[in-house]
């Protein structure tokens, strides 16, 4: 309850701060819309050359695309700004002030900044998702849809965990840029159906750095046929990733040498 | 040592200062993007049951996706904010009192990064060419690579001008990094970094050929891969050469207007 109250304060501050810089607020909305257009355009053009992609038809792929846009919008709204600043806090020693507060440091540094502009984009991404669902020719029940949305939300949290895993090395490397750029390159793996990956790449993207699980596994569960092992894989890897991130975060905090580390 | 040489040497030292960043970027980022793109296209080639799509074999497509992200890196030179941050926090003051042209200095630092990445591209392409293409290596391929690298240098100057137009908005607006990101999306998509332009519908291609974007990725990459005739390569290069003075003059005009606005104390 205390954390919920604290989060509501974060929301209030974030909205009032966003409204101070109105031009920036609108620029950010346009930027995210452009990201959506480019992604939808990419797959629309791709389907001019092929009728199926990794066993999915165009309408199924569009639901998949809309889902990762939704995950991206959620991430941008809730976590992205915080993730952006975390390496600077560590590098400049600003993390000190968070460590001394009587709340979880991880909670504070992960959720302090709520991106109000991205909240508008979240609504746009949601509209794209609803449209893509209305065009989907694969039959589904409301229960399947709820289960799918639950898995997509799980994917959103997994996205956060993976980004944290790429940020935490800043405690040792001093500069977060290389790992951060690497993370953003890896996010391309979220945007492709997992069945295109084979061999070592598949093993890497579904087990070690499970980017392919964020949206593609939920989409496969949704389009069916539902296979229990797919869900178990998703559940175990998610739990493992959370456990690893928490352990890694604690190791990072221990290596933190305060100002100018 | 002349000032341009000093600037280049200082910037080069900066680039290789963070060694872990450098290697993670150079190997990890490029290779992972390549593997993901190859996996996608391999799946498309298999589901279509054909060896050639849009004039590309799978090997050529792989080489295309090896070069495309490297090309984007060359274009982007320095990070977004290389000018707007200075305007925002008042750091521009030092350039105004230095005995060298501020925009010339910025162009030089930007192109130092680009040149460094051009060398990376040359190295990686040569490696990839031997690994992915079984045909014997000919002298003409080497010449195409050299010409393509020169083409990329000019394209990077064009992209610098476009970036400046976004960055200089910082004289009037608080935060402009979003404009840089938008430019990156548009340049990558319309330049052919996500998909080769041959896959685009003809109507869109007809418009793109008059814009500078095709010279950013598609033009130099197709030249290096030998997918375009010298005449076709020259056409997109000429379009860029026509755009370059237009963009340059726009930057100069915006810079002059912006300087009148600049308070020099940071915002």
Summarize the topology.
The complex is a heterodimer of chains A (261) and B (267).
Chain A: H1 2-20, H2 22-46, H3 58-92, H4 95-99, H5 105-111, H6 116-135, H7 142-167, H8 170-173, H9 177-186, H10 199-208, H11 216-223, H12 228-255
Chain B: H1 3-15, H2 19-48, H3 58-76, H4 84-89, H5 93-97, H6 102-132, H7 139-167, H8 177-191, H9 202-208, H10 218-225, H11 230-261
Large-scale geometry of chain A: globular
Distance between the termini of chain B: 36 Å
Q: Describe the main β-sheet of chain B briefly.
A: none
Structural class of chain A: mainly alpha
Low-confidence stretches of chain A: none
Number of helices of chain B: 11
The interface involving the most residues is between:
A-B, 40 and 40 residues
- Helix/strand order of chain A, N-terminal first: HHHHHHHHHHHH
Question: What is the gyration radius of chain B calculated from CA atoms?
Answer: 20 Å
Mean pLDDT of chain B: 86
Beta-strand content of chain A: under 5%
Q: What structural class do the secondary elements of chain B suggest? A: mainly alpha
Please tell me what the overall shape of chain B is.
Answer: globular
Number of domains of chain B: 1
Main sheet of chain A, how many strands, which sense, barrel?
Answer: none
């Amino acid at each position: 309850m205390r954390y919920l109250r604290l989060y509501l304060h974060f929301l209030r501050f974030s909205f009032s701060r966003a409204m101070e810089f109105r031009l920036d607020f609108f620029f950010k909305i346009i930027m995210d819309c452009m990201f959506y257009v480019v992604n939808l355009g990419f797959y629309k053009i791709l389907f001019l050359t092929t009728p199926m992609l990794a066993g999915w038809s165009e309408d199924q792929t569009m639901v998949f695309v809309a889902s990762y846009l939704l995950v991206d919008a959620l991430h941008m709204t809730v976590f992205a700004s915080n993730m952006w600043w975390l390496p600077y806090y560590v590098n400049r020693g600003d993390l000190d002030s968070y460590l001394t507060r009587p709340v979880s440091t991880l909670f504070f540094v992960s959720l302090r900044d709520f991106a109000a502009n991205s909240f508008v984009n979240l609504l746009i991404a949601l509209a794209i998702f609803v449209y893509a669902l209305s065009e989907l020719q694969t039959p589904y029940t409301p229960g399947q849809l709820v289960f799918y949305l639950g898995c997509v939300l799980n994917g959103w949290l997994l996205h956060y965990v993976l980004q944290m895993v790429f940020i935490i090395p800043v405690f040792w490397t001093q500069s977060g840029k290389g790992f951060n750029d690497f993370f953003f390159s890896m996010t391309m793996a979220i945007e492709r159906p997992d069945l295109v990956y084979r061999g070592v790449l598949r093993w890497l993207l579904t087990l070690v750095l499970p980017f392919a699980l964020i949206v593609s596994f939920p989409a496969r569960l949704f389009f069916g046929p539902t296979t229990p092992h797919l869900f178990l894989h998703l559940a175990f890897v998610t739990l493992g990733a959370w456990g690893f991130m928490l352990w890694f975060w604690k190791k990072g905090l221990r290596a933190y040498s305060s100002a100018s580390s | 040592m002349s000032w341009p040489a000093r600037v280049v040497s200082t910037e080069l030292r900066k680039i290789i200062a963070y060694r872990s960043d450098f290697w993670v970027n150079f190997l990890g980022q490029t290779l992972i993007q390549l593997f993901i793109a190859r996996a996608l296209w391999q799946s498309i080639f298999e589901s279509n049951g054909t060896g050639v799509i849009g004039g590309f074999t799978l090997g050529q497509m792989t080489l295309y996706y090896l070069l495309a992200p490297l090309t984007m890196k060359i274009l982007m030179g320095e990070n977004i904010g290389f000018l707007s941050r200075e305007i925002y926090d008042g750091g521009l003051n030092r350039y105004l009192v230095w005995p060298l042209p501020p925009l010339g200095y910025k162009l030089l630092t930007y192109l130092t990064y680009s040149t460094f990445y051009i060398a990376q591209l040359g190295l990686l392409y040569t490696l990839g060419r031997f690994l992915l293409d079984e045909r014997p290596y000919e002298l003409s391929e080497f010449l195409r690579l050299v010409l393509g690298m020169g083409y990329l240098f000019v394209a990077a100057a064009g992209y610098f001008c476009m970036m400046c137009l976004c960055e200089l908005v910082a004289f009037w607006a608080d935060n402009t990094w979003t404009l840089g990101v938008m430019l990156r999306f548009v340049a990558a998509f319309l330049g052919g970094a996500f998909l080769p332009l041959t896959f685009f519908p003809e109507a869109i291609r007809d418009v793109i050929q008059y814009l500078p974007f095709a010279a950013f990725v598609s033009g130099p990459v197709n030249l290096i891969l030998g997918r375009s005739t010298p005449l076709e390569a020259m056409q997109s290069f000429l379009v860029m050469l026509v755009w370059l003075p237009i963009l340059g003059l726009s930057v100069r005009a915006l810079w002059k207007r912006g300087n009148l606005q600049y308070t020099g104390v940071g915002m």
